[in-house]
Design goal:
It is a single chain. This protein is of the alpha/beta class. Helix content is 44%, strand content 18%. It is built from eleven helices and twelve strands. Helix 1 packs across helix 2, helix 1 packs across helix 4 and helix 2 packs across helix 3. The chain is rod-shaped and about 110 Å long.
């Protein structure tokens, strides 16, 4: 195969019948075009142009070769355009915990559509860790320590743990919820285990409350729904209940909150972030996080 540069030089010169105009189209010098065409003629062993004093004409071989190359370059251009169009219209696939997707991400997606109506989204909630190297996902929101080798990682949200409940429980029955010791008379709701409540009760120096009792939910969204319906007091993560605290659907009965050892991170493969649609979604996520007010 002759070099691509020599083929491009000949195809342009054949269309214009001018080395000068071909050079202007290709953004090179006239001498460079002339050199590339001469290199091509030597590689093919045929003369492609008749070089006259004030004119450039195609030889018989050149007249056969030029249309074929023109069609080939048109086909390459069309294929490139199709690939570029597909890369801009393919949805951005986002994977995140189901609880985070439902409680924080989904309520805000309308703002992204307003800013970027040309970008489609595919939200894929997953409670298992997704390997982005072997997945269709473009970007992920992870809850963890932030150590994700091979991925571009940006801290999204830090996290606090604290009790929340329905406002109705603050003045309920014979045992209103006034001080942490009152928890002994109320039902405790757990998120996938009992350790968070144990840690919080120890920090609050509360005795007489059995952290091993109560209902356990493996999904944070169900835990929050149970708390809003007045079924008990939940140990919640701040990001997941922030909107409910803002609206008054949930309240914090006590001021004490504990910083979590984990945080939320936006992660992606470096090559995926080179796609403009993925980069725009990542930037929007970080902007939304920066604008989130916490109660």
């Amino acid at each position: 195969m002759p070099s691509l540069n020599s083929l491009r030089a000949f195809e342009a010169a054949a269309r214009h019948l001018s080395f000068t105009r071909a050079a202007a189209e290709l953004h090179v010098t006239q001498a460079a075009v002339s050199h590339q065409v001469k290199h091509l003629e030597e590689a093919l062993g045929v003369q492609l142009f008749k070089r006259l004093n004030r004119a450039l004409l195609l030889t018989d071989a050149g007249q056969v070769y030029a249309p074929e190359l023109n069609a080939a370059f048109d086909q390459i251009q069309a294929a490139t355009a199709r690939i570029q169009h597909a890369s801009t219209t393919k949805p951005v696939t986002v994977t995140a915990l189901a609880s985070f997707s439902a409680r924080w991400l989904v309520p805000r997606l309308g703002r992204f559509r307003q800013q970027h109506p040309e970008i489609e989204l595919l939200i894929d909630p997953q409670n298992q860790l997704v390997d982005l190297r072997h997945s269709h996902a473009d970007i992920a929101i992870r809850y963890g320590t932030g150590h994700y080798p091979g991925l571009v990682t940006e801290r999204f949200f830090t996290e606090d743990l604290f009790p929340v409940c329905s406002p109705s429980l603050l003045e309920s029955g014979d045992h209103p919820l006034r001080v942490p010791e009152d928890l002994a008379y109320h039902h405790i709701l757990h998120d996938d285990g009992h350790n968070d409540w144990r840690t919080w009760l120890r920090a609050a120096q509360v005795e007489g409350v059995d952290a091993n009792k109560g209902t356990v939910f493996t999904d944070s969204g169900m835990l929050i729904q149970a708390a809003m319906s007045g079924q008990g007091i939940a140990m919640a993560r701040g990001v997941l209940v922030n909107d409910e605290l803002q609206s008054g659907a949930l309240v914090r009965p006590f001021d004490l909150g504990l910083p979590s050892e984990y945080a939320y991170y936006v992660v992606a493969l470096p090559e995926r972030l080179q796609l403009p649609r993925v980069a725009k979604f990542k930037d929007w996520l970080l902007s939304e996080a920066a604008q989130t007010r916490f109660s």
